[in-house]
Amino acid sequence: MHMMKFSTRRLLVVVVVLAGLLVAACGPAPLGTSWPAVTLIQDQCGETTRTGILVAYLDRVVVVNPANGRGMPLLNPTNCETRQDNNGNLRVWDFRSGGKQFFTLPLEISDEKMLVVSYDQHLIQVNPTLVQPVDGNAAGVPITTSTGHVVTDPVLSDDTIYVSMSAKDVIALDRETFDRRWTFTTEHGVWAKPLLVENTLYFASLDHNLYAVNAETGAEIWRLDLGGAATATPTLHDGKLYIGSFARKVYEISAEDGTILNSFDTLDWVWGAPTIVDEVLYTADLVGNVYAIDISNGMREIWTQKVATAAIRPSPLVVGGVVIVASRDQKVYWLNARDGSIRQDDEGNPMVRELQASIFSDILLIEPSESVDIDEPIIVVSTTANNQILVAYALDNAASKWEVAYAFQ
Predict the structure, then answer these.
(1) Whole domain around residue 13: which residue ranges?
(2) Cα distance between residue 240 and residue 260, in whole Å
(3) Residue 14 domain-assigned?
(4) Which bin fits 134, alpha (ψ -120 to 50), beta or left (φ > 0)?
(5) pTM of this prediction exceeds 0.85
(6) Residue 60 domain flag
(7) Which pLDDT tens digit goes with each residue over 332-343?
(8) How confident is the model over 143-167, as pLDDT tens digits?
């Protein structure tokens, strides 16, 4: 009876986390079934370089100014002045698909071209200066005879685009023509972004395997059964791959031949990619535990802390002596890297911040620089609440800085 309860609880956790994707796998995804995909992006106009936060969510791709959370103004490339519409209003970076939904981040093909891959397998080319479809083709070019949908970030090389499919398979497309170069068949979906290292593409699948294939030909180099589904990009460190799985393990694997070198048992399923800093691996599981593991010689536990009350999907952010994790329980936690305890601010209050909805996307760290007009490091997290898709906090004391709604200006 105890085992039945445990299995049901684990199943419910994953169903909640994946509900949108599982429902959408058989047809068009209703708006609201995904979470924001976020990263940092730079542009340059004349002598000016700007860093923005690129967000792909629902049917829009936007760029947000890290200094204030407002839309990043478009610049005229001839004089680098801000663009205005016919009514004199400031124009900001805001691409609207007109019906397509995005689960993944765009690819920067060139200074004049950005590629957005929609959930329903269409490749849409966008002019990043005008934020308009190239040649007016807002519908994009379909990826034909493919299974499932696109729910994880594609990967770009000098001549190829690698796209993972939610039902099964990874495909390689010509970067210029979008012609299919090869297809690698898996037994289940690939929901993790592949890792490209020189001429080898590594990716994990829900079919329990971690694969290494020749990036040029798609030929299999090796495969490894992880004992459970894997939903994260492997982390490469010192010639070894580190990845967690639903087998309740984190593995240390030879990147050369796929041999398991060491493993570490976790208390529950691991979703996100591990973070490695100074020979310490940090990871988390789907019931809210956070782990610090010494990988300098094998895999030895430093500490394990039960931090959150629900699943931790994003990879831990580790900076200085701080580990930051975010959870489906709608909270962000600042931890001491030495022992995993919750940090306190200058007034002795726990550095835990509650948001309006679950947090699934990885946390961004943004530091002051010539391209970012901020006076202290900040972190940015995203939620599934339309009126709070981005929230920024000071790194040092968790003070709130700004937040962004889906209908941002």
Answers:
(1) 1-30
(2) 10
(3) yes
(4) beta
(5) yes
(6) no
(7) 999 999 999 999
(8) 987 778 999 999 999 999 999 999 9
